[in-house]
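Please check our next protein.
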Amino acid sequence: MTPTSALLSSVAASPDIVVATGDNGTIITSRDGANWALQNSRTANWIYRVRYLAGEFIAVGQNGTLMTSADGTNWNSQVSGTTRWLNDVTWIDGTLFAVGTQGTVLTSSNAVDWISRGTITAKSLYAAATDSDQLIAVGIEGIILRSQIVPDLTPVSILSYSRFESAQSSTVNNLFLFGGKADQRFTLDSRLGFETNVWSRGPLLEFYDSSGTFYYLESLLDSNAPPRQFYHGTLTP
């Protein structure tokens, strides 16, 4: 039997206890799923989502509400630094991510100190999830945001290369086709020979397309173009 008539919007479980949250600051808990007890959240804000992450409960909601609990019954309010709705929270590679309205993204390594990260959108985000290496956030108008959190160490390959000169502009053009994984970032480094092991750092590039391939055109003035050059891609965080 439930001890509340509040709208309950989320539920999460640890090995020892189940926690449900809802509007008007409602938090209820159960050890067996049948008998429930009302807990004191000390807030009237809607606690929209609760998750059990990295060994503790984390709840988020209205007006930037962000709360934590080690046991599900005793709750501590944390400073989120925002008054926007926070709609979900998830965890990957030692970092917590909270998402909310107007593209809000917060991160924390300890569930206490939170930093605003912003996003590339002002659209509201309503849910987030992670796999072994990436964060996925979704929201209004079908928006899906994906971020590679753990770097993919798949080597970057130069699938094809061609060199051609442009007589009209007095340039030498190098056209590369790269192969890798989406969201990988790398520099295109070069050297003139193998007499030393010194590579010159090149431009920072990134795979945006999910196909894991893209073309890159490098144009050099004819007077500055070396007769031969060796290239490789160096992964960056």
